[in-house]
């Protein structure tokens, strides 16, 4: 591999990490509360509101059904409104965040459903409010599972951020397209793949380690 590519590879990696971190943080802030609502507003739950639950679930399913590449193109006007541009790392964060929110919501929902309902009933019998149950029972009990599920989302965002390079989103995907594909540089493609593999392995290892530390069982 040409030594001149190394600085570009480092820059692309930093852009990818920045895109994933910012998008994940923003999506988590929105996605976790939505996941909580999906569980707590269901039938026979502490905030039962079936019509609201069905509407929310339908919206989540609708957004999840849109392929990421189509979502990126479809929301370009919104991306320009938020980021001021439709290309570059800042612009790529908008569709990445929107795509991750329903994914996170469903993953959190899955983890919360694994909390034994006996614990919820015990908290109710002691006079706990719904908010107290969410904060002191649901989230603490489900946290190891939530961390494990969020690790999966981070890895998916890494792949999506690479896909964002096809429309000038920056990062490793953009480097692979511009230098590896368009300039017929297989060495750049291989280097990009190797960096992505290492990045994903580090994320998975870190996520597994954190989930184990949070697991009190």
UniProtKB/TrEMBL annotation:
Q: Where in the cell is it found?
A: Cell membrane
Establish whether keyword Mitochondrion is in the entry.
Answer: no
Q: Indicate the segments forming the ABC transmembrane type-1 domain, all copies.
A: 13-207
Matches recorded under InterPro entries: AA_ABC_Transporter_Permease, MetI-like, MetI-like_sf
What GO biological process terms does the UniProt entry carry, in alphabetical order?
A: D-methionine transmembrane transport
Keyword Disulfide bond annotated: no
Q: What is its main location?
A: membrane
Which positions, given as ranges, span the membrane?
20-40, 52-76, 82-105, 145-168, 188-211
* Record keywords, A-Z: Cell membrane, Membrane, Transmembrane, Transmembrane helix, Transport
One GO cellular component assignment for this chain's record is: plasma membrane
Give membrane topology per the record. Multi-pass membrane protein
Family the entry assigns: Belongs to the binding-protein-dependent transport system permease family. CysTW subfamily.
Protein name as annotated: D-methionine transport system permease protein
Q: What organism is listed for this UniProt entry?
A: Schwartzia succinivorans DSM 10502
**Organism phylogeny:** Bacteria, Bacillati, Bacillota, Negativicutes, Selenomonadales
